[in-house]
# Entry
Amino acid sequence: MLIGYARVSTQEQETHAQTDALRRAGCGTIYDEKRSGGNMQRPALHTMLDALQPGDVVMVYKLDRIARSLKDLLTIVDRIEAAGGKFASITEHIDTQSPTGRMIFQILGAFAEFERALIRERTMAGLAAAKSRGVITTRLPKLPAAKERQMVQLWHTGRYTKSELAIAYAVHISTVKRAIRRADPQLPLVDLAGDSDTLNQAQQQRLACI
# Structure
């Protein structure tokens, strides 16, 4: 049986592109989660590995979706093969059952780890250079605090979805998710439009356009 595994690193990201590709490749069962690939403490990953049967094929969209280091990658594939399964990657076209395929698999894993290390190094160097020039590199809020609190209040009424609030407030849905996550229930609620339980006219018009 073809079994898919999809992963993204943060709650703001989605696995849709990966899961769509895995379904097109024939995966009947797909495990997905939002955890860092550098952390082996991933519940969905271990649930999948524990359920493997001889003949199963674990498929990922790309190597770095299942592990972010060569060591973890080899550990996971060894566990798959110990259960009598195989490993496949849609992007890299890997077959780990042959000696040549396993060698290519290890080389690609090593290059992927090297590439991530270079990206991390360049990012840190860029942040350090910006800091030395006095450039502020922290994320600026997308909404004023009062509007953010009102948006969270509307979410808690149960009358609007996160997508609807994102459209109404003209922000990305990840902004809505972050606001809800960091909301302090002790903060006073604000009424910006006279009726804090409804969207104002401009916001309702944005929703009407979809």
Observations:
- Residues 99-132 form the longest helix (34 residues).
- Residues 2-113 form a domain with the Rossmann fold fold (CATH 3.40.50.1390).
